[in-house]
Specification:
heterodimer, A: 4-stranded antiparallel β-sheet, about 45% strand, B: mainly beta, 6-stranded mixed β-sheet, 11 strands
Chain lengths: ~120, ~110
């Protein structure tokens, strides 16, 4: 079974530029997540979708970050304009169901590594 | 108090040793608990869920103490391949709503030959 696909794997941009990351979840997974992992920290949830609706975006810095999942499958995460502190790994993840239900494992992609210089 | 706190590490142990990781969480209403493993420059992967009664999977044993808001992971007979960062993960929201997993910073384990 194919896992969560992300691209690009690596991106270096200058501050104030924009960047977009793409994610294709595991087939059939209704819920998609974007996490930010800064070096030395655990992942932090930015936004959670169920199908094409937003379930939780309380930790998304909405002045510069945006995300969409238009057809309930693929998703894009955009940062504009980027700041130095946005340097991190952006992890996309998916799960079959929504919520903290028993057996609802979250599967992560390999991540998109962003360096802002 | 941080939502999820872990031993700072790193833990450097010889092959065959037993090592224990501890984790505390701040939200007493938390319902779901997990240990994830993250290899260097890789994505986190679920190692095991943690149940109230405690659970074991081969060399790995996870325990939960709700009264103390404390989770532990015990690894017996450490292998070189166990070298990784172990992330304590809590779903702080009760019920089947937002699955906002909260991760600890992780504890790095290095198993030495």
């Amino acid at each position: 079974e194919a896992g969560v696909a992300q691209s690009p794997r690596y991106k270096i941009i200058e501050k104030r530029q924009s960047v977009a990351f793409w994610c294709n979840p595991i087939s059939g997974h209704a819920t998609l997540y974007w996490y930010q992992q800064i070096l030395g920290q655990g992942p932090k949830l930015l936004i959670q979708f169920q199908n094409n609706g937003v379930v939780d975006d309380s930790q998304l810095p909405k002045d510069r970050f945006s995300a969409e999942r238009l057809k309930g499958v693929d998703s894009t995460l955009k940062i504009q304009p980027a700041k130095l502190e946005d340097s991190a790994v952006y992890l996309c993840a998916s799960s079959l169901k929504v919520g903290g239900l028993s057996g609802n494992t979250i599967y992560f992609g390999e991540g998109s590594w962003l360096t802002v210089v | 108090r941080k939502e999820v706190e872990q031993d700072p590490g790193p833990f450097n142990v010889p092959e065959g040793a037993t090592v224990a990781f501890n984790c505390t969480y701040s939200n007493s209403a938390s319902q779901s608990f997990f240990w994830y493993r993250q290899d260097c420059r890789k994505e986190p992967k679920l190692l095991m869920s943690v149940y109230s009664s405690g659970n074991e999977d081969g060399r790995f044993t996870a325990q939960l103490n709700r009264a103390s808001q404390y989770i532990s992971l015990l690894i017996r007979d450490s292998k070189l391949s166990d070298s990784a960062t172990y992330l304590c993960v809590v779903n702080p929201l009760p019920g089947a709503g937002s699955y906002q997993l909260t991760f600890g910073k992780g504890t790095k384990l290095s198993v030495i030959p």
